[in-house]
Write a structure and sequence with these properties.
Oligomer: homodimer
Number of strands of chain A: 13
Structural class of chain A: alpha/beta
Distance between the termini of chain A: 28 Å
CATH topology of the largest domain in chain A: Rossmann fold
CATH class of the largest domain in chain A: Alpha Beta
Helix content of chain A: 25-40%
Strand order of the largest sheet of chain A: 3-2-1-4-5-10-11
Shape of chain A: elongated
Order of helices and strands of chain A: EHEHEHHHEHEHEHEHEHEHHEEHEE
Number of domains of chain A: 2
CATH architecture of the largest domain in chain A: 3-Layer(aba) Sandwich
Largest interface: A-B, 61 and 60 residues
């Protein structure tokens, strides 16, 4: 029986999702895997027979380094929701036949909440049919909203990008001697980790954002306008960091005040957009000040050019741990990151996927200031270690090099 | 008589405008300047008596290094249009009195088109009243639209940021196996240099943008929709780079198709916004494909975290050359960058401000492909050297450090 591994990537990409892939690949090789397959476009692609032999794609040490600095899923991604596992189900049958043909011993899926739902279902189905394939998850999400793990790979780099550009934007906003309000919109539909990370811009060389609004606390428009008014009068320039997911007390997203939402995605999540743009226009109309909206947008999950070295290393570590766990007989678990007490140091472990899949870890309410407009020092202590260090990037023609499939 | 220098920064900032300031400061010191003053918020601030002694603000070699990596104008900026110079004019009188009090020998203004208009007028006024103060300009603009100089400091770093994030965005856009169109909006109201620089993303590891629209060529909506339709059918994912300033054949900006412009700035330029958002919605409606709009926004002029080393060094060089020119008796000139034939190498010179102020250098029409949807290899050869090299950044708490006034 061959010791074969298959690895896939799923959900929205991050700046370091390929460092996790590199971790799976390196560790699988070290542990003597015979073949290391990559699913192309996740299980959706695999169901259509799309996979590759990773040893043909990663052929040198430099390839592996470039892979680690390549943003977005190297293997492509999917958003595919498996049905509930039932013996005899057609999709599961097809999938397990493919895995049997490839003589897979360990199946690793790198992804966020929805992808961990996939691991949960696959391991459950394996139990139902008595398959010995090990199904392991490796965490990935810029949103940092996975349960159990101290934090998720992808979050630190996104936080570093956000804090870096907000620091630059704040400096830019102070350049004219004029009253102005800049509203910066940050990703994170249900959890304010990324928006909170904007606080890291604050230091002896930067005042930081003036107000920070997370989705964990209901947003009060009147209070917001009053606060901004007071700040513009006191200090002229005001910079507000706002989560794309902030909602009113009645549960509506703020951009729903003005119109319709754009639709639902494959998992039934609302597609939101325009919180900053909406707020900037609202302030301009109600306060008569110059405003601008900046949506940080896709670079939050793709800016590997300013990745956190800590994050890259931890992404690699969790990928390696997931495949190692599978080889040692674990299944239905996700690799997690644990944090030491005292000076920051992290290590990997793994945990029951049933306690992780479909859970959302929000920012603890006690880490949000009482009036809901800033985060506490505890929040800063938690996030600050995760953005430390810079990888030595390989440049090609003046730009960070990427590895292509 | 003291050998005093005063330096100011004006107009929109860049990632390297403070490297030019560092160049002025270092060279002035080297040349034995007695005092080096900084205008706070340009001549507008100076008219209100706002200036500082730069030797109190830049007190170490590390300060100077951090200054070079600090985005946005260290001294603050203004958008202030001087009246036509006439002997006896109140504003000029006031300004020249302040300069006389400070015993200024050389006045350096770091800025773009509108700032060079200021240098032109001040040197003319000095001639009218027989003042011996030397007025020199140092170029600065991400737009690269200043005449005579081969290129402008600030452009290379903006180009490097744009190419880097577009490369990341393109990779992100290919992650799902779906048809989609991403429209990326890039700064440059009248000149397409920055939008054209998106071509640099193209290489063996990236297909680059599929279509590039500059403001130099009239935009044809029907042709655009047809091209995108064909591309989505052929290849699925399409990425379009579009200048914020693209205009229809009748002279309207594309975002004016749908509504009103937001107003005029102090110099009478239209405030534009929303080209990408408009086009993305238009395509979604007309082609029924998934679209997204990404406005690269402020980081284009502020992302010193991914500055071009070439650009930083040239910014420093032009600042130094401007103050040196003033000390050697030049006035009414702007420092320029000249390019050697053959292998890229640049050097500084200076040139009559009257030939520069208020001129706009657009992308030569022969560097734009015939159908107006891409740039040529000549364009690439011109831009590529300007994004080379990365400065060794000084980090503090995980983020690039900045120097504050």
């Amino acid at each position: 029986m061959a010791h074969n591994v298959i690895v896939g990537q799923s959900g929205g990409p991050t700046a370091v999702i390929n460092a996790s892939l590199a971790g799976v690949f390196s560790k699988a090789r070290e542990l003597g895997a015979d073949r290391i397959y990559g699913m192309i476009n996740g299980i959706e692609g695999l169901l259509n027979g799309k996979y590759c032999d990773l040893e043909e794609k990663i052929t040198s040490k430099e390839d592996l380094s470039v892979l680690c600095q390549t943003p977005s899923s190297f293997l492509g991604s999917c958003r595919f929701k498996l049905p509930e596992p039932e013996a005899g189900n057609e999709i599961y049958d097809k999938l397990f036949n493919i895995l049997a043909e490839l003589e897979i011993e360990v199946f690793v899926y790198i992804g966020g909440n929805d992808s961990m739902d996939t691991i949960k279902k696959l391991s459950k189905y394996a139990g139902l049919i008595g398959s010995t394939i090990k199904f392991m998850g490796a965490p990935k999400t810029i949103d940092n909203d996975l349960a159990v793990t101290d934090h998720t790979p992808g979050f630190g780099s996104a936080a570093k990008y956000i804090a870096t550009v907000i620091k630059e934007i704040i400096r830019d906003s102070y350049v004219y001697n004029l009253k102005s309000v800049t509203v910066v919109e940050i990703m994170g539909r249900n959890a304010g980790w990324l928006t909170g990370a904007s606080v890291l811009a604050k230091g002896t060389d930067c005042p930081g954002p003036d107000l920070i609004y997370l989705p964990e606390v209901p947003f009060d428009m009147d209070n917001f306008v009053a606060k901004v008014k007071k700040l513009t009068e006191e200090k002229g320039n005001v910079v507000v960091a706002v989560s794309e997911g902030v909602t009113l007390a009645d549960g509506r997203n703020i951009c729903e005040i003005d119109g319709e939402i754009e639709g639902l995605d494959a998992f039934g999540h609302k597609i939101l957009s325009g919180a900053a743009s909406f707020l900037a226009k609202y302030l301009a109309k109600n306060l008569g000040v110059k405003t601008r909206a900046i949506e940080l947008n896709t670079p939050q999950r793709a800016a590997s050019h300013i990745a956190s070295l800590t994050d890259v290393q931890e992404a690699f570590m969790t990928g390696a741990f997931a495949v190692q766990g599978g080889f040692s007989g674990k299944t239905g678990e996700m690799a997690i990151i644990c944090r030491n007490e005292g000076e920051y140091k992290s290590y990997a472990d793994s945990f029951d996927i049933n306690k992780i899949a479909n859970e959302v870890k929000q920012v603890p309410i006690e880490w949000i200031c009482e009036d809901g407009t800033y985060v506490t020092d505890e929040f800063v202590s938690y996030v600050l270690p995760l953005i430390q260090g810079e990888p030595q990037l390989i440049y090609k023609n003046g730009l960070p090099a990427h590895l292509s499939l």
